[in-house]
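Re-run requested by the PI after the first attempt was lost when the workstation crashed. Everything re-entered from the original request form. Ligand of interest: SN-glycerol-3-phosphate.
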Amino acid sequence: METRHLRTATTAVLALTTACMGGESDMASSGKILVAHRGASAYAPEHTRAAYELAIEQGAHFIEPDLQITADSVLIALHDETLERTTNVEEVFPDRFREVVNRNGLLVRVWFAVDFTLEEIKQLDAGSWFSPEFAGERVPTFSEVIDIARGRAGIFPETKAPEVYGDQGYDMEHLVALELQSHGLHVQGGVEGTPVFLQSFSPESLRILRHEHGLDLPSTFLVSQYVDGQRWFSVDGLAEIAEFATGIGPSKDLLIAFPNVVERAHAAGLTVIPYTFGSRDPDERDEAVQETRYFLYNLDVDGLFTNNPDLFPS
Ligand code: G3P
Ligand code: CA
């Protein structure tokens, strides 16, 4: 194990406290990390400028872009590999679908982001699906998300489906490394007020970012499946994670299923930042606050992803 990275992990929270000083995103007095999941996505359409700006206004320490790739190799902030859930692509490009068999065995039409150039994707309305007041919001590039955050909040980019893109001739990790470098964010402390935390469900993607591209940045390995929890949350599994990441990002359910993992992860020098908290329903927000407090202070996680940055305990 590389002691340099272990040291990075064990001091990550403290370092981030310092790194965020001076921006709009001063850390909570507790030192816990607030990651705005897809922006303030309970109140504004996910992965839009509106959601990211609101998240920063609400005190998010980090804004989260999930990353996909356009046909012309541009990283964009988008959760799904396809565009139809969060844009009006079906209206603008009605014939540009592919037919695929979905999880229920049904043949459905989908509009893959990778089938469109950035210029085409920029024609899409990424806000109306959420509410008419957000009509005209656009799908931002990763570069634009960085510009929104610069000096005001950190970024927490996630490589989405890197192997799927790899099979189509795209190199997501290379694009991420290039983008971070062009913004001076490829090293810790590169831009004051904008720390970077990498994340992925793919161990290989995190390995490549660290070992092939030399990105000495904090990183979170996301885990969602119970069988993966069994594999990775053992003492040996956590030690292996420490070779390619500085922390874990379990789903909430998985953290409940493996209650010892926080203590074990901390013992292995790993941070624990679970997902996803908050609610779009105003009637559920008291419950969301209680849940957030329970995970932060009873389970002692280091931070969390939330759709409601304003509900994060100060
Ligand atoms: O990245 C943490 C969390 O966002 C993972 O789930 O599907 O919302 O990207 P997802
Ligand atoms: Ca994500």
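Saved to the shared folder this time. Residues 3-80+139-311 form a domain with the TIM Barrel fold (CATH 3.20.20.190).
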